[in-house]
C-alpha cells in the first residue's frame, strides 16, 4: 500500500538533527573538539565514498533523536511504519547512528528492524552528512499529522521470549500475578526536564504539565474493578498521594529503561499527557486516554485513542473560549502556541485550566466502555465530533486531516462555535 505524503518539514527535521549533536550529552571538551575537527576533514572523503557506493546500491545515513524520548520513539517508529507501507523505498540501505539515547531498550528493539551504530564518536564523525543536508542524509521527520501511518500500519516492535520472561518477573516483583490486568498512568511535570536539560528554558513546555493526584478518582475506579494501576515516569516531582496495594508508584520505586517500554506495550490501556512518557504507548498501538492534551489542536491519532484537552477560559468572564475561537487565534499568530502559550494567552486574557478529577474519571470510564464494545455513539456526540474535526482540519496553521476522538462527556459540554 502506498500513501502520498503532501509535506515533510525538513527544516524542523534539520533543527532536531542539530539538537542531537548537542555537546551537553557528549564528550569532554577535548574529545568534542577532536570529533568536530576530524569530521570536517573526513567529510569530503566520506562524501566521495558514498557517491561511489551509490552507483551500485542506494545508501542513506540517518541519526536517531537521542535526547528526547518522545522523538526517539515517534520519529523512528514513523520511519519503520512508512517502510512497511511502501513510502520508504525497500531498495535503499539505511544506516543510523545513535549515542546515549533517552531509552536504551527502545534503541535495542529498533536495532532489530534497522541498522544502528551506537557510538558517540562515530556519530559526530559522520555528522556533516546531516549537518550539510547532503543527498545521502535520511531525515526522521515527525509533524504530528501522520494519521494514516499510525492507523494503517501495524506495530513494528516486539519483545523476544527472554524479554517476555524478564518483563513478567519484574511485574511479579511489583506484586502482580500472571493474569492480573493493569493500566499505566503518566502525568508530565517539570522535574525531568529541569534535571536532564538544566541549561535549557523548559518553561515553554509547562503548559503540558499535569498533576498526578488529579487522577485519583480514575485510579479508584480502575482498582475497584480488581485491576492494578502503575504510575510511570522518570525523575518525577512527587510520589502519588493515593495508597493502595494495587496502586504501584513504579516511577519512584521500580523504574528502568526496559520496564518503561514493557509496561507501555503490555498495559490494557494507558492514561497520560502529551509527552515522551506517553509516546511509547502509541508506537505499540496500546489503547490510550489523553489527559490535559496540549498544545491547542494537538491530539493522539492512533488506532484506539481518545483524549480531552485542557479547559480554555477567558480570564475576565470565566466563560469557555470556543474551540473555533481557539483555532482562529492559533491561525492568526506568527508563532505556535506550542512555543510559549502561557505568555501569549496571558496577553489575550485566556487561561489554560487542567482537567478536573471528574473529567478524567469520565473519559477513563469511556475507555472501559469502548474496549468492551459497549460505548454508545449517540447522535449528539456524532454531530459535535464532526463539527470539532471540521474546525480542526480547516485550520490554516495545523491543516491536519485527522479523525480525532474526543471524550464524549467532555465534547458534549464543550463550546465549539461562537
Structure description:
The protein is α/β, with parallel strands linked by helices. Strand 7, helix 13 and strand 8 form a beta-alpha-beta unit. Helix 3 runs parallel beside helix 13, helix 10 packs parallel to helix 16 and helix 12 packs across helix 13. It is globular, with a radius of gyration of 22 Å. The N terminus is likely disordered.
Which helices and strands appear, and what pairs or packs with what?
Blueprint: H1 10-20, H2 29-53, E1 58-63, H3 69-85, E2 92-98, H4 104-110, E3 115-118, H5 120-125, H6 128-131, H7 147-152, H8 161-173, E4 182-186, H9 191-196, H10 216-224, E5 228-231, E6 247-248, H11 250-253, H12 257-266, E7 270-272, H13 276-283, E8 288-293, E9 305-309, E10 311-314, H14 323-332, H15 341-347, E11 350-353, H16 357-371, H17 379-393, H18 408-413
Overall geometric form = globular
Strand content: 5-15%
The residue ranges in which pLDDT falls below 50 over 5 or more consecutive positions are 1-8, 23-27
Order of helical and strand elements? HHEHEHEHHHHEHHEEHHEHEEEHHEHHH
Distinct helical segment count: 18
Q: What is the spatial order of strands in the main beta sheet?
A: 6-5-4-7-8-9
Approximate helicity band:
40-55%
**Major sheet summary line:** 6 strands, parallel
Amino acid at each position: 500500500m502506498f500513501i502520498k505524503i503532501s509535506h515533510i518539514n525538513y527544516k524542523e527535521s534539520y533543527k532536531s538533527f542539530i539538537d542531537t549533536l548537542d555537546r551537553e550529552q557528549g564528550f569532554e571538551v577535548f574529545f568534542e573538539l577532536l570529533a568536530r575537527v576530524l569530521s570536517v576533514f573526513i567529510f569530503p572523503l566520506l562524501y566521495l565514498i558514498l557517491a561511489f557506493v551509490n552507483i551500485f546500491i542506494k545508501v542513506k545515513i540517518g541519526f536517531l533523536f537521542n535526547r528526547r524520548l518522545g522523538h526517539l520513539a515517534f520519529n523512528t517508529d514513523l520511519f519503520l511504519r512508512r517502510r512497511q507501507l511502501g513510502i520508504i523505498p525497500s531498495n535503499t540501505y539505511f544506516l543510523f547512528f545513535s549515542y546515549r539515547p533517552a531509552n536504551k531498550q527502545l534503541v535495542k528493539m529498533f536495532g532489530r528492524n534497522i541498522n544502528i551504530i551506537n557510538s558517540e564518536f562515530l556519530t559526530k564523525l559522520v555528522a556533516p552528512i546531516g549537518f550539510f543536508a547532503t543527498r545521502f542524509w535520511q531525515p526522521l521527520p515527525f509533524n504530528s499529522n501522520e494519521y494514516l501511518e499510525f492507523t494503517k500500519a501495524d506495530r513494528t516492535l516486539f519483545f523476544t521470549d527472554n524479554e517476555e520472561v524478564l518483563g513478567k518477573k519484574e511485574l511479579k516483583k511489583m506484586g502482580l500475578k500472571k493474569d492480573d490486568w493493569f493500566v499505566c498512568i503518566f502525568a508530565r511535570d517539570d522535574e525531568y526536564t529541569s534535571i536532564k536539560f538544566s541549561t535549557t528554558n523548559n518553561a515553554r513546555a509547562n503548559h503540558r504539565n499535569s498533576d498526578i493526584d488529579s487522577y485519583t478518582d480514575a485510579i479508584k475506579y480502575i482498582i475497584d474493578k480488581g485491576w492494578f494501576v502503575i504510575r510511570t515516569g522518570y525523575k518525577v516531582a512527587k510520589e502519588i498521594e493515593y495508597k493502595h496495594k494495587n496502586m504501584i508508584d513504579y516511577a519512584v520505586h521500580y523504574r528502568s529503561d526496559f520496564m518503561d517500554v514493557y509496561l507501555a506495550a503490555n498495559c490494557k490501556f494507558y492514561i497520560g499527557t502529551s509527552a515522551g512518557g506517553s509516546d511509547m504507548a502509541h508506537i505499540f498501538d496500546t489503547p490510550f486516554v489523553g489527559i490535559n492534551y496540549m498544545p491547542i489542536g494537538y491530539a493522539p491519532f492512533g488506532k484506539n485513542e481518545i483524549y480531552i484537552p485542557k479547559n480554555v477560559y477567558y480570564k475576565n468572564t470565566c466563560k469557555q473560549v470556543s474551540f473555533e475561537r481557539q483555532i482562529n487565534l492559533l491561525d492568526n499568530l506568527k508563532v505556535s502556541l506550542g512555543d510559549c502559550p502561557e505568555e501569549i494567552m496571558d496577553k489575550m486574557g485566556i487561561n489554560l485550566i487542567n482537567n478536573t478529577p471528574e473529567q478524567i474519571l469520565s473519559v477513563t470510564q469511556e475507555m472501559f466502555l469502548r474496549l468492551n464494545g459497549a460505548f454508545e455513539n449517540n447522535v449528539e456526540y456524532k454531530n459535535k465530533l464532526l463539527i470539532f474535526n471540521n474546525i480542526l482540519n480547516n485550520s490554516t496553521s495545523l491543516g491536519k486531516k485527522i479523525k480525532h476522538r474526543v471524550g464524549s462527556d467532555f465534547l458534549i459540554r464543550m463550546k465549539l462555535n461562537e
